[in-house]
Structure formats: C-alpha cells, structure tokens
C-alpha cells in the first residue's frame, strides 16, 4: 500500500486536509482525538518527510471567476535540445505542470491562460519557438469530470 509508514491518525489527518486544507488545528485535533499541539507536530512531520509537499489551489475553469483556458500540450524536441526546452518551460508562468514522457525527447505540458488570445500567444511565442521542436499536439480541456491530486489512502 502507498505510504505504508503512516499510522491511522496520520492517514486521518491527510484525509481531512485533502477535503479541507484550511481547517484549523483545533478543529482537526477534535476530529482525530489529539491536542492542537500534537496535530500541529504531526502535520509538520508530514511536511518535513515529504508526504505533504505543498498546499495549492486547483485551477478548474468551471469554478473560478472570469474565463480561463486550460490546455495540455505534447511536445517533442530533438534530443540535443531537450534540456534547453525543459529550462524554457520551467520558467514560463503559464506552465503549471511539466512531465518527461517515455519516447523520443517528449514532454507533456499543462498550461493555464486567461483567454484564447493569451493561449495563442503562449503557443506562438513559447512553444513554437522551442529549440529543436519536432512536433506539437494540443488539447484544450472543455470540462473536468474527475481530477484527483495525490494518492488515495
């Protein structure tokens, strides 16, 4: 099982935080049967061990004000240009996730932009300008049905 080194209380803390990362230490402590100080210490230990890596917002175009475009790109570059392409994409504020895929120097890029025009600018000024670009496939997310972050405990 994933995360086999955790006890039942750690698992319960993670489950609660997964559903409400803004819960107070006092409320969390009541739910797991520990003191506020003990819960805070456990959360800190989970953070230090890398089990809890960061707290973040999920950009879901159906749940936020204004219009956003969430797009996936599959990018292939020549092998000698791969690291340079990674470095460029790592420094783009539009890029929210970047994965190295199996195959010929392939990257999977998630990007979020505020409009179709900004998305087009990102494609033209960043992606099409990547050194050694061989292939670019694009998919725009129309609707999210399921999007799980992290592991099920």
TrEMBL record:
Keyword terms, alphabetized: DNA-binding, Transcription, Transcription regulation
Single GO MF descriptor: sequence-specific DNA binding
Protein name in the entry: AsnC family transcriptional regulator
Pfam family for this entry, one: HTH_AsnC-type
Leader peptide range in chain numbering: none
Organism the protein comes from: Butyricicoccus porcorum
Keyword Protease annotated: no
Gene Ontology biological process terms in this record: response to amino acid
Lineage, uppermost ranks: Bacteria, Bacillati, Bacillota, Clostridia, Eubacteriales
CDD domains: HTH_ARSR
UniProt cross-references to InterPro entries, sorted A to Z: ArsR-like_HTH, AsnC-type_HTH_dom, Dimeric_a/b-barrel, Tscrpt_reg_AsnC-like, Tscrpt_reg_AsnC/Lrp_C, Tscrpt_reg_HTH_AsnC-type_CS, WH-like_DNA-bd_sf, WH_DNA-bd_sf
Domain annotation HTH asnC-type: ranges: 6-68
GO cellular component: cytosol
């Amino acid at each position: 099982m994933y995360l086999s080194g955790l006890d039942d209380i750690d698992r319960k803390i993670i489950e609660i935080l997964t559903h409400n990362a803004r819960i107070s230490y006092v409320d969390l402590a009541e739910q797991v049967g520990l003191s506020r100080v003990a819960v805070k210490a456990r959360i800190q230990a989970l953070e230090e061990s890398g089990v809890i890596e960061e707290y973040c917002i999920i950009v879901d175009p159906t749940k936020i004000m204004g219009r956003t475009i969430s797009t996936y790109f599959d990018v292939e570059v020549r092998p000698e240009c791969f690291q340079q392409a990674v470095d460029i994409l790592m420094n783009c504020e539009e890029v929210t996730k970047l994965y190295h895929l199996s195959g010929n120097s392939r990257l999977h890029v998630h990007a979020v932009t505020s409009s179709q025009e900004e998305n087009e600018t990102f494609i033209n000024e960043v992606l099409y300008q990547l050194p050694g670009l061989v292939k670019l496939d694009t998919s725009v997310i129309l609707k999210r049905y399921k999007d799980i972050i992290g592991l099920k405990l």
